[in-house]
Amino acid sequence: MKSGLQESKSPSQLIDARINELGDWRGKMLGRLRALVKEADPEVVEEWKWRGVPVWSHDGLICTGETYKNVVKMTFAKGAALKDPSGLFNSSLDGNTRRAIDFHEGEEIDEEALKTLVRAAVTLNRSKGVVRPRRTGSAE
Questions:
Q1: Is residue 132 part of a domain?
Q2: pLDDT in tens, 6-27
């Protein structure tokens, strides 16, 4: 059951609160990952699901940002279908669908490679099940 406080806050406000309540490297890391997702896709939609998991979507789920004691985990819903030339995925590698990146305290983020992965996830979401307008008037 959701508390009245949670129901009155937007997903973005709930994510802000999570970042602030962590108050350590995990909050800073989650905040930076969130900023990179937004830089990669300014139209991203923030959601709050599964009892407190930040989620970023665009025409479907892109990724989640989960925090644990020793890691901040960014799980890409369709990660197995994404090209990862920079080798960012380092967790959930045996699954058929998801792939994740575990970030540990003090680790550097390959920001450009991460933004490329986010954009690839959006492109994949848009390519599946989206009704495309019919072309009219031009022959190719």
A1: no
A2: 568 999 999 999 999 999 999 9
CATH number at residue 80: 3.90.1150.200
Distances (CA, A) of 40 to 32, 43, 58, 124: 12, 9, 11, 14
Query: Residue 116 contacts by C-beta under 8 Å, 6 or more apart in sequence?
Result: 40, 86
CA separation for the pair 129, 26 (Å, rounded): 35
Amino acid identity for residue 50 in this structure? W
Q: Distances in Å between the alpha carbon of 69 and those of 2, 93, 138? A: 24, 21, 57
User: What pTM does this model have?
Assistant: 0.85
The boundaries of the domain holding residue 47 are: 4-125
Distance (Å, rounded) from C-alpha 94 to C-alpha 97? 9
137 assigned to some structural domain: no
Q: How many domains does the chain have?
A: 1
E strand or H helix at 20: helix 11-22
